[in-house]
Design brief:
GO terms for molecular function: D-tyrosyl-tRNA(Tyr) deacylase activity; Gly-tRNA(Ala) deacylase activity; tRNA binding. This protein has helices at 39-51, 100-114; strands at residues 2-8, 11-15, 18-23, 26-32, 74-79, 86-88, 91-93. It is an alpha+beta fold. A hairpin with a 2-residue loop joins strand 2 and strand 3 (18-23). Helix 1 (39-51) crosses helix 2.
């Protein structure tokens, strides 16, 4: 798996002119799924991103000290198969990205990891 992580003041995903997901302050995470990725790969990426110390600690003023969970910020996860694109001449090739029929349920399991059900 590959992830591109960006700190944001806010972020949203729009489809056909309609916002389908949005967050305030937090992380925008573009995630690419390789054809050979497993649940353990997803678990590793999720744990790493959620625990990355990217934010200033407001109490101490210390920079790069708190993670997104400590700040109670949002995470917007966006599937991005192009992270596994390979240029062959002038034509992109995405054959190492997980195929859509497999990637969709795999991606949804990752979303569930980030947003566990409230019990």
């Amino acid at each position: 798996m590959r992830a591109v992580v960006q700190r944001v003041a806010s972020a949203s995903v729009e489809v056909d002119g309609r916002i389908v997901s949005e967050i305030g302050p937090g992380l925008l995470v573009l995630v690419g799924i390789h054809d050979s990725d497993t649940e353990s790969d997803a678990d590793y990426i999720c744990r790493k991103v959620l625990n990355m110390r990217l934010f200033t600690n407001e109490s101490t003023g210390k920079g790069w000290d708190q993670n997104v969970m400590q700040r109670n910020y949002g995470v917007l996860l966006v599937s991005q198969f192009t992270l596994y694109g390979i240029l062959k001449g002038n034509k992109p090739d995405f054959h190492v990205a997980m195929p859509p029929q497999t990637a969709k349920p795999f991606y949804e399991s990752i979303v569930d990891y980030w947003n566990p059900p409230i019990v």
